[in-house]
Amino acid sequence: xxxxxxxxxxxxxxxxxxxxxxxxxxxxxxxxxxxxxxxxxxxxxxxxxxxxxxxxxxxxxxxxxxxxxxxxxxxxxxxxxxxxxxxxxxxxxxxxxxxxxxxxxxx
Length: 107
Fold this sequence. Notes:
The protein contains 4 helices and 2 strands. A two-stranded parallel sheet has the order 1-2. By secondary structure, the chain is mainly alpha-helical.
């Protein structure tokens, strides 16, 4: 609390606590898996990648995102959920309307 006001929203505090208590072995394994991953030529569907400009864990210059979130850090779904959800909404709208290789209607 700073001058009677909360400095960070509860959601952000909860996310920071979760990140601080994550198992370091799992974080190390995850980062290695991400860095070693190579796309399969067999994938014939669009792949979407959202990335924050301030990601210090996996800097943006090491990737080729389809959407860039200005000021976004690592773990966008935790720290910038509105940006992630908005992008997912756009993708789903395009997919279900038949744009970008999607289909019209439902299966």
